[in-house]
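DUF2188 domain-containing protein: structure tokens wanted.
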Amino acid sequence: MSKKNQHVVPYQGQWAVRGEGNERRTYITDTQSEAIDLARSIAENQRSELFIHNRHGEIRERNSYGNDPFPPKG
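Answer:
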């Protein structure tokens, strides 16, 4: 399994989880909270990073689930 950072992004009035560099969305949910939970699970499993975007597509939070001893804080 390749290690890909996960992004929670707005998508057609809903929220999507998308692996970095992927065109296809892994999940589409009704709420951002649900998308964050799904993306966090993937990022923890892959030991990658999670980027949470706001409704305008700008990154509002970032969490690291890798081996970095000094991960970025939200």
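The longest strand covers residues 6-11. DSSP finds one helix and five strands in the chain.

Cheers.
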